[in-house]
Amino acid sequence: MFKTFDDLATHLLAGGVLDHDAAKGVLNSPDDEVLGLVAAAGRLRRAHFGNRVKVNYLVNLKSGLCPEDCGYCSQRLGSATPILKYSWLSAEETVRQASAGVEGGASRVCLVASGRGPGDRDVDRAAGVVEAVKAAHPHIEVCACLGILQDGQAQRLRLAGVDAYNHNLNTSESRYADICSTHTYDDRVGTVEKAKAAGLSPCSGLIVGMGETDDELIEAIFALRELDSDSIPINFLMPFDGTPLAGTWELTPLRSLRILALARFACPATEIRMAGGREMHLRSLQPLALHVANSLFLGDYLTSEGQAARTDLAMITDAGFEVLGPEQQERPATSVPIRHRGAGTDQAPNA
Predict the structure, then answer these.
(1) Residues tagged active-site
(2) Which of 39, 55, 75, 194 lies at 20 to 30 Å from 118 by C-alpha?
(3) Which contiguous run of DSSP H or E holds residue 88?
(4) Mutual angle of helices 34-49 and 5-13, in 10-degree steps
(5) How much is the pLDDT for 308?
(6) CATH architecture for segment(s) 18-335
(7) Residue 207 neighbours by CB distance under 10 Å
């Protein structure tokens, strides 16, 4: 074990790898050492990303009507959560919504559709939407999140201009059957591998606070390291009524900071994104979390409201960071509208 978290950061900056014992030390750090933990994780964050924050923006292409039974999700089969339900947005409406995020400084637009996975006709539809977004904003990254992919679909998306594909592992392999029974952990890993093979940047992360043990959390983060995900969104469970995990409150602001720090120590050079539920669980410590995470979602999530977009942008600049985005300098923060998406518990991309 390392004497201090600063020693651990020095070890990792020199090319070392976080092991299980050190990971346990991060998660079990005393409350009065968390500031030191954040400072040490911040050394890694600054070494690889400076003071920049990547801003991402979600567009929910298709909401609800999902046949899967993921226990955390407001869009799941049999969910009683009151959410908006609709089929595919038009290309014009998608571009309109994507433009709102771009005007606020987003450098990546994430296009998300509920469901187990797309049919070939759905992929063609999504490809047309991507082409429209790229035509309007040629320098913006587009990440697709459409569910479990079949052979050849990742290649079709790549040809249409998709830059990245999100498919979260969500939890550890050993715990996965407790969270979902309609598809497997291997299905999720297989989709990420298909995306990578097609030349798409892999985006895969977690939902924490679902009852996982420390060992299961470490297992999941180490699996993401092994998967070599380019970006890791960390979602914090929003346990709204109408889902099997309703009433599950296991996270505190300090626990949430430790989890972000664990991801940073495990994957020092990877984009770590504080995603769905950060407002609920990090609360007033969100600015402190920016010293660990280098990415966030702007404004709302899939079926639930996030922090006001102008508040997010003020938080970034007030903390001494700057937004990384091709149009950030030309677009005022106050131009970003806040859209109500209906009550829900869906996390950031996790179809």
Answers:
(1) 66, 70, 73, 110, 143, 203, 273
(2) 55
(3) none
(4) 20
(5) 82
(6) Alpha-Beta Barrel (3.20)
(7) 29
Strands 271-274 and 164-166: unpaired
Q: Residue 163 is encoded by which pair of tokens?
A: 């830059």
Residue 111 to residue 251: CA distance in whole angstroms: 28
What is the distance between the alpha carbons of residues 176 and 217, in angstroms, rounded to a whole number? 12
| Residues of the chain scoring pLDDT < 50 | 302-303, 327-351
Within 10 angstroms of residue 233's Cβ, the number of other Cβ atoms is 29
Beta bridge partners of 145: 112
Instruction: Domain ranges for the chain, please list them.
Output: 18-335
Q: Could you tell me the two tokens for 182?
A: 């309609």
Rounded to 5°, angle at Cα 177 from 228 and 214: 60
Task: Look up residue 346 and give its two tokens.
Answer: 């869906």
Please give the Cα distance from 181 to 116 (Å, whole number): 12
What span, in angstroms and rounded, lies between the C-alpha atoms of 21 and 18? 8
Provide the pLDDT for residue 334. 31
Distance set, CA 180 to CA 67, 71, 112, 170, 211 (Å):
12, 6, 20, 10, 14
